[in-house]
Structures
1.
Amino acid sequence: MSIDFVAIDFETANSFRWSPCAIGISIVRDSKVVEQITQLICPPNATDADCFDDFNISIHGITWEMVKDQPKFLDVWNSLIPKIGSLPLVAHNAAFDIGVLRESLDEEGGEWPTLTYTCTLVTSRRILDLPSYSLPFVADALKVELKKHHDAGSDAKACADILLKLCKKTSSSTIDSFLESLNVRWGHLSEGNWRGSTVRPKSPHDLPEPRTDADKNHFLFGKHIALTGALPSGILRSKAQERIAYFGGIPQGGINKETSLLVVGDIDPHRLAPGSEMSAKMKRAIELQAKGQTIEIISGFDFIPLLE
């Protein structure tokens, strides 16, 4: 596994995203954190302590006195650009951190960079089963050290370690393959344009992938299975397809030369006999049978027990 990226975290002075008061980054190369940077920031257009909300101070402990003589956001960001280079960014709740980046650049007249990014909050939700997906819960579940929550440097380091642990957990050798396995798309940012790193909308035509570690002795394993008609007991076709995939079968939307099993959902098994009324899929299956293809046809009533 050789993975390169930059984990990033911002803390803000108030509820506005254009008020960063600290940034932390962890640079990862060859799946190892090789550099960490934490920098306090004087928020854009801040002139006195009024720019800090008591609530924010209670979270991160940063005050006006601590940042009033620190560099402005744009100077800090420009100093980090050479270190980030073309590496993708990763954040825990990237919608917030990339929002801070965009709005702070707007506030100080900077240009949006061209970059890709993803989110360990989004990806953790796809893999883990937790009561909360906040950074402390995810870090604890993956046994990642979180030295001080809401310290930008500590949070960025934890985020970096979380992504590495998630990639290892899913046997992903690249972030591309990791996101692909979760059906999560890269977020993109460029001047005047951005798109979040989110779960790809599922097409109604998408079919579940068969489980590769299913029991090879199960009747459905390895079979290409098509469904026709309404299934008994009101079972949704999508649910049946999920169960087919769970047992290692390959759900199909229609009949083709790979089909090995056709389930006729709305016919009584006692009426599944020569001369019975046939759907278009059933007619097609019988045509392929006549040409030498091995396709078994079963009723929905005989099929349902196979899903349990």
Note: The chain is about 35% helix and 20% strand.
2.
Amino acid sequence: MGEYLNNRRKHIATRLLRTEAAIYLLLARLALALFSFQRLTRFISRRSKRPELTGPDRERSGKQVQSAIFRVCRQGPFETTCLHRAIAAQAMLRRRGVSATIYYGAKTLPDCGLRAHVWVQDGAAGVAGCRVAKQDGYRVLASYPE
């Protein structure tokens, strides 16, 4: 019976985290539709007001947010871009006491010109969009917070 309850709690926690990710992704889409990027930089440049998580708790939070964002984007009912995912991931981490950084980068491709990409890192740990940024060689143009 104890194992059943433990599994049930984990299932509920996962569902709640994915619901939170969906809400933050939807809010990011809405914010980008309503406000200029310059205005949004004030929001994404804020640091967490909560005490910073450290050690295994911080690492676990990053992995949980990463997984939730990934799953919702894969199975979600609406399209998201790297900017939506980055804003949502950073906001979710900030809520947990993790001051992650959004990186805005670009690269030039011979066949389609300038391409931009946004990703989130907590120190050296990638949270959202990092694999694409590293494998495709995007160069950092700006970071929030700086």
Note: The longest strand covers residues 113-122.
